[in-house]
Specification:
The protein is built from 10 helices and 3 strands. By secondary structure, the protein is mainly alpha-helical. It folds into 2 domains: 62 residues, Winged helix-like DNA-binding domain superfamily/Winged helix DNA-binding domain (Arc Repressor Mutant, subunit A), CATH 1.10.10; 143 residues, Four Helix Bundle (Hemerythrin (Met), subunit A), CATH 1.20.120.530. A hairpin with a 6-residue loop joins strand 2 and strand 3. The chain is elongated. GO terms for molecular function: DNA binding; DNA-binding transcription factor activity.
């Protein structure tokens, strides 16, 4: 009788991406503290998956700078300092400013219209206080800016930087009043782009990321205590 090889299966609804998001959010919000070990077996049991996707999730978390791992040892949660977080956001602000400026100069009429319509529609999420849905929309909004710059090299750089900051950018929406402020900041960027004002769009995007940096620093400070 031919032996059937066991397949490594992730249960429906649980992907490596979802595990990375869940673990990253726990690290950023302090549910898992710096120095704590992330055991593969425990995580596999928690998410009801095999160790294979857990290893991949830990690898991605390592690339994001949230965990460190030495050969033949458990992964350990790192301490993301306020200074290091600020340095990443500083780079992000510069990249986003470039994208917004180029988007204002290069976006097609259809791209501008779609950006404006989606921005207006997001007000419903603000009114509902739907922070998770708004966070997902926020990612789409910024992706439109990156693609609207019509520069593949810049798109690659900004996407990689955003991936490392993603947990902190999501965490900002846990703060009171942040949804409304984010919507207003987006509005300034959209207005500048609709007017094809590259300088204003770049400045609005830079200021937006600076504000996000200040909001997200709250979580880094909490983890440093």
């Amino acid at each position: 009788m031919k032996q059937v090889r066991r397949r490594e299966v992730i249960r429906p609804g649980t992907t490596v991406e979802q595990m990375v998001r869940a673990i990253a959010d726990m690290i950023v919000t302090g549910a898992i503290l710096p120095g704590e070990k992330l055991d593969e077996g425990s995580l596999a049991a928690r998410f009801d998956v095999s160790r294979t996707p857990v290893r991949e999730a830990l690898r991605e978390l390592g690339a994001m700078g949230l965990v460190a791992r030495e050969p033949n040892r458990s992964a350990v949660v790192t301490n993301v300092t306020e200074a290091y977080l600020h340095s990443m956001f500083e780079a992000m602000a510069e990249l986003e400013a470039i994208c917004a400026r180029l988007a204002a100069e290069r976006m097609t009429v259809d791209e501008r219209r779609a950006l404006e319509l989606d921005h207006r529609a997001s007000m419903a999420l603000v009114h509902q206080g739907a922070d998770e849905d708004y966070s997902a929309y926020n990612t789409e909004f910024h992706t439109r800016l990156y693609r609207g710059a019509h520069n593949e090299h810049i798109l690659e750089m900004v996407t990689q930087t955003r991936a490392r900051l993603a947990p902190f950018r999501r965490a900002q929406f846990r703060l009171p009043g942040r949804l409304t402020k984010s919507y207003e900041e987006h509005g300034q960027i959209v207005t500048a782009i609709m007017r094809a004002d590259g300088a204003a769009a770049g400045q609005a995007a830079y200021s937006h990321v600076e504000i996000v940096s200040d909001a997200s620093a709250v979580f880094a400070k909490a983890n440093e205590k």
